[in-house]
Structure prediction request, 341 residues.
Amino acid sequence: MIEVKNLTKKYGDHIAVSNLSFEVKQGQIYGFLGPNGAGKSTTMNIMTGYLSATDGEIIINGHSIFDEPEEAKKHIGYLPELPPLYMDMTPIEYLKFVAELKKVPEKDIDKMLDDIMKTVKITEVANRLIKNLSKGYKQRVGLAQALVGYPEVLILDEPTVGLDPKQIIEIRDLIKSLGEKHTVILSSHILSEVSAVCDQVMIIAHGQLVANDTPENLSKIIVAYNTLELTVKGDRNNIKGLLDEIEGIDELEVHESLDEGCTDFVIKTAPEVDVREEVFRLMSNANSPILKLALCNMSLEDVFIQLTSDKKWIINKEKKEKKKWFGKKVDREETEDVSDL
Ligand code: ADP
Ligand code: MG
Prediction:
């Protein structure tokens, strides 16, 4: 349905989107998840034909958004980050105006708008000025605008930003129900929102795709690791050397500790491996007191933070060989590994 191939966007020297590729299939709700500045809006603006790309290709139902924008745009309804509402119009006036812009046949307009206003539940405010509506209702009018012409794909840029908790739930429910008839791509920087609404999650950081999977699979990957947080007092290299000898440790990270004379370690093992007793014995024999030893179950939130932060580790359950490094920063080449999560 939609293919994004090697999309790159530069603003001057700044690379906002870097070699991004993904596919969108019919009938699913996709979440575009990433922190502020990740490149979500830029990607969506390019996909909808509002912004040019530096490089790459976007095909929508067989039509290139760059070469055949009119044809490609017919299949897309777009709710930008800042909805393009005319505050001095009423919703019905505004939606009629949008319908004319989208070249909906005159005879179909009334029925279509009636139906759309029912779907997004704005019928009762149809004749009020948009400027007097609450933020939640303004957002519904924005959604209605995207629905005009019944496009197959809806692209919604941070549709719940700035809404109160009750309005957020209402808009989320509305998006879910829209997902029954449309393919939806929504962006968000809130993980719980995306995992609650979406069938497929694409995590984007620094303009690159770092994960593309179902929320369930993303959770499984997390369960596939045990994380042990350890703070030990004593000679860092000596302690590191001892930990290196423990069988079953897949990854060992070393960090400065806030406690004086101590080092923080993050140890990753397979879920069935528990190295706590061995760590205790080794540290005890070395006369290095353990100030903290905690087994943490990672949440989806943790994985998101890890995937989208500068300091990354490799999460790849296929990679069986041991990887150990000492305070090593993973470079871009290696972080590519996380894309096949
Ligand atoms: P997101 O929507 O994920 O928050 P954006 O796509 O808005 O991210 O921005 C991606 C990056 O591109 C950011 O670093 C942002 O500062 C930069 N950027 C966005 N728009 C422009 C612009 N018009 N000119 C220059 N830089 C921009
Ligand atoms: Mg944005």
The chain has twelve helices and 14 strands. Confidence is low (pLDDT under 50) at residues 311-341. The pocket of magnesium ion (ligand 2) is lined by residues 40-41, 81, 157-158 (CB under 6 Å). The CA atoms of residues 97 and 145 lie 10 Å apart.
